[in-house]
Design goal:
The protein has 290 residues and is an all-alpha fold. It has a domain at 42-55 and 119-269. Helices cover 72% and strands 2% of the residues. Helix 4 packs antiparallel against helix 6 and helix 10 crosses helix 13 (229-243).
């Protein structure tokens, strides 16, 4: 009996150490890439480049209207049921934690709905405007017509879209969100897990536009994302945390788009640790040469 317990304990330690080493490797990869900084860089770049404000300002009123409707509806229909559950988990703090939970849920729903029905073109314009500002017009020309002339305003150089890249809202995304939502009922740890899971999904969609401009196939995109899981998860986690801030989620949706575009521009300009790894395109090129 004692021998069996010792073996089980040793196996548990082995598994725990293996998971710890994997987590350590992912954290190290994320730190080297600096991807977690791009959402923050996006905020400062957006604030310092007023020309990038145009897409946000053009959608401000309808987005604020949507926000009011969603927040009111969530407090009318979701607050009390969640409070009834959290009373057993958080005790006297339940009222406060339920308010925070409802606000974070509202922010997520506002983000999902607005990105799908209101902001798609505006976010594309913002992403493309940053690429123009960072002199990455070569890759941008694969997905957009660019006006001739040396304009000081990068947004003025944007012509007609050749193809709209951002994925629209899908039932799968909403179902995944609902599945993970109960994690928030677990104090602290549950919320951390929820943000991490949402962060990975958010990170994987950060460069949808960039992948389209590069004309990568689905296998190429999957290979790149798999090879760079840690950087994209780090970016997505920080972006998710920013977008969960009540009443500021739309602003951070735009700044995160700016951050993603800055990251893409750095990859194109070989100005990031991620470019030390070969892209799917270059790997295929190497195979053809061989």
């Amino acid at each position: 009996m004692s021998s069996t317990m010792d073996k089980a304990s040793a196996k548990a330690r082995e598994v725990a150490m293996e998971d710890f080493n994997k987590a350590k490797a992912l954290a190290s990869s994320a730190a080297r890439s600096g991807a977690y900084l791009y959402p923050i860089k996006g905020v400062f770049y957006f604030l310092s480049h007023k020309t990038l404000w145009k897409p946000l300002l053009s959608k401000l009123f309808p987005t604020l209207s949507l926000s009011v409707v969603v927040v009111v509806a969530m407090f009318l229909f979701a607050y009390l049921p969640q409070l009834a559950v959290l009373v057993f988990v958080n005790g006297p703090l339940a009222a406060f934690t339920t308010i925070l939970l409802t606000l974070s849920e509202s922010s997520t729903l506002i983000n999902l709905l607005s990105r799908t029905f209101l902001l798609q073109d505006a976010l594309v314009d913002t992403f493309d405007g940053v690429l123009v500002s960072r002199r990455q017009t070569a890759v941008l020309s694969e997905g957009r017509q660019l006006k001739s002339g040396n304009f000081n305003d990068p947004m003025e150089k944007l012509g007609k879209l050749i193809k709209s890249p951002f994925e629209k809202f899908t039932p799968k995304a909403f179902i995944r969100y609902i599945m993970y939502l109960p994690l928030n009922f677990i104090p602290v740890v549950g919320t951390v897990i929820f943000v991490a899971l949402q962060g990975r999904t958010r990170g994987n969609s950060a460069h949808t536009r960039y992948f389209q401009l590069k004309k990568w196939s689905n296998p190429q995109k999957e290979a790149w994302l798999k090879e760079n899981t840690a950087p994209y998860t780090a970016f997505g986690t920080v972006a998710t945390l920013l977008e969960l801030i009540p009443f500021a989620s739309i602003f951070f949706t735009f700044t995160n788009t700016v951050g993603a575009a800055l990251w893409a521009a750095d990859i194109e300009g070989n100005n990031t640790a991620m470019t030390e790894m070969s892209t799917p395109s270059s790997r295929e090129g190497d195979k053809k040469v061989e």
